[in-house]
Amino acid sequence: MPNPAKLLAIDGLNIVRRVYEASPEPDSDLKASIALRHAFSSFRHVLEAHAPTHVLAAFDHGGPTWRHALYPRYREGRAAMPSELRAALPEFHDRLRAAGVHVLMVPDVEADDVIATGVMRWLSEGRGEAVVATTDKDLHPLIAHGALVWDHFKNEWHDDAWVRARFGVAPEQLHDLLALMGDPTDGVPGVSKVGMKTAARLLGAYGNLEAVMAGAGILKTPLGERLRAEREILEMSRCLVSLKLDVRLGVTWKTLAYES
Predict the structure, then answer these.
(1) Per residue in 147-186, is it b (16+ CB within 10 Å) or e — as a string?
(2) pLDDT of the chain along its 260 residues, tens only?
């Protein structure tokens, strides 16, 4: 019997940046070269560990995305990728392609949107298991739809129970949680003075963002007042943390087929 189909979606820059930043050395061509050699080994380990039939390796295309158009200050405080690492990436992509891995970069969207579109399409067509290799919390809502997340660096699975233990909410509530608490890493504002515990408590009591606004948002408390005053910011934050699921990937499943 043939092996059941399995899609492995790899958050490429998540691996590359983590490996690069693990070295305390100053930025240089040599540091980039060494980091990408280790990152290539990480890719090989992930591929060997999961033995997928299909692989989608997504990287950010670079430049502004639809999120910047919505909110010009998006990712404003995030440090730019070191020029030495950026210059070395095309050769790294070529190495991946030579190893049979299809690299996807789509203008105007982030790698997260590419992965989410591919994974949701795969699952909705009932093609088999879907594994996302990332440490990025923004992709964990895909767990609600049947995907599993693999943390390569800790060698651990992230599932429904992991999300509930880590964030205090179910995977399907994660985008609402991130919208309420904001995300300083990406410059998502959220509601002022609302952290993860308060956001989780609100969602535990009301269920989702609309119900939070209909319930807590009408209370005559400081929190209720902030929710009302910052309603537009909250709505924009919810858009920013959402995953785009209709990206034109320009590939077929046959394109993404992988043979180890």
Answers:
(1) bbbbebeeeeebeeebbeeebbbbbebbbbbbbbbbbeeb
(2) 456 899 999 999 999 999 999 999 999 999 999 999 999 999 999 999 999 999 999 999 999 999 999 999 999 988 889 999 999 999 999 999 999 999 999 999 999 999 999 999 999 999 999 999 999 999 999 999 999 999 999 999 999 999 999 999 999 999 999 999 999 989 999 999 999 999 999 999 999 999 999 999 889 999 999 999 999 999 999 999 999 999 999 999 999 999 97
**Sign of dihedral through CA atoms 6, 11, 17, 22?**
negative
Give the phi and the psi of residue 147 in degrees, each rounded to 5: -80, 160
Q: Which two tokens stand for residue 15?
A: 């691996």
Q: Is the pTM of this model over 0.85?
A: yes
3-class secondary-structure state, position 257: strand
Dihedral sign for Cα 13, 259, 255, 145, please. negative
Q: Based on C-alpha coordinates, what's the Rg of the chain?
A: 19
Contact 54, 8 (CB under 8 A): yes
Distance, CA of 67 to CA of 87 (rounded, Å): 25
Q: In which residue are the tokens 């190495």 written?
A: 95
The DSSP code sequence of 78-145 is SPPPPHHHHHHHHHHHHHHHHTTPPEE--TTS-HHHHHHHHHHHHHHTT--EEEEE---GGGGGGGGG
Residue 241 has, within 13 A of its CA and on its CB side, a CA count of: 29
